[in-house]
Sequence to fold (385 residues):
Amino acid sequence: MNSIYASLGDTIFDVMSGLARETGAVNLGQGFTEWDGPEDVRRRAADALITGPNQYPPMRGLPELREAVAEHYGRLQGVAVDWQSEVTITSGATEALAAALLAVLSPGDQVVLCEPMYDSYLPMLRRAGATARIVRLQPPDWRINRQALAAAFTDKTRAVLLNTPLNPSSSLIAADDLALIAEQCVKHDCVAISDEVWEHSVFDGAHHISMLSVPGMRERTIKIGSAGKIFEMTGWKVGFACAAPPLTRAFARAHQFLTFTTPPNLQEAVAFGLGKPATHFDAMRQKLARARDRLAQALAHEGFVTLPAAGTYFMAIDLANSGINLSDTTFATRAVKEAGVATIPFSAFYETPPDSALVRLCFAKSDDTLDRGVDALAKARRLLT
Ligand code: PMP
Fold:
């Protein structure tokens, strides 16, 4: 086996969901919603499956979906994208991330990225022959330090891989920090691979800022989105990559030999869904923010200290400040086995152990699941303190 994969286990998300299934625990670990996205979008996919066509769509994606992606970002984010030369449809953001890394990197290149980070980044960039230069962010603000960022860039830096809103910290990269990244990218002539899958899950009136819109970055950014996140149907692996024509050409060459294409009925349904009015996405955000607030209040009532959650489906418990003196992994493992609640330890998002003990909870759940999850967490706290 390739040595990079030989040193990896199954992802923490699968491990925790597996344990939750086995033990009957409440699953607040893996990031999926407990509701099944808009019914009209699902009906569209069902109808398209029956009426067809069900043969290979074009390699870069159905034209109507590529047009819908461009229209969606133009209307809701003020980012102008040419659907014909700048949009590629992928099998989820996971494939788009892999294609972007394979398209841009050569052996010996370096990639700058912030920690905590989504768990596919490091193995995939290493598999592409590159090495990582990691800038660690610290709670509760998760801001980028100018000196630390500048020190991570060298003459070998080829790309920066960023994620905003950031999973698992639930923070948004501030406009000032995006400008710092842009300054370094321009200075070192780098590409930004911008994982924006949580772009619609931002709360409290905040607006998502795409790296494509940051001055100096339009020609050097690959913006990655995910229909699974936009429509709260994480099993729908439909992603999009938007980038200037030369980057899109390189990206498409990598994509064509990863998956080549994505099921046509899902593409058609996502094209329809992306045309929904802004009010649809506002309502989704309100529903998520309400769930977030319910979970935060119930946890506070049980004596837990949580970090602010400005975006994503996630909230973090600060274990030490909640009176629990265990590592995040020990807490998560014991909580699922002994108290019946699955969480995700933050250390899964770090190359070397983090400085604080945090566990991630997914709040995109029904009131009943959230309440049962909090009861089980309270039990864990009683058992483990
Ligand atoms: N990037 C981040 C930051 C994510 O949180 C996720 C999903 N949890 C992905 C990428 C993968 O998205 P998809 O399911 O569309 O492959």
Q: What stands out?
A: The first strand starts at residue 26 and ends at 27. The pocket of 4'-deoxy-4'-aminopyridoxal-5'-phosphate is lined by residues 31, 92-94, 118, 163, 167, 195, 197, 226, 228, 234, 237, 239 (CB under 6 Å). The chain has a mean pLDDT of 97.
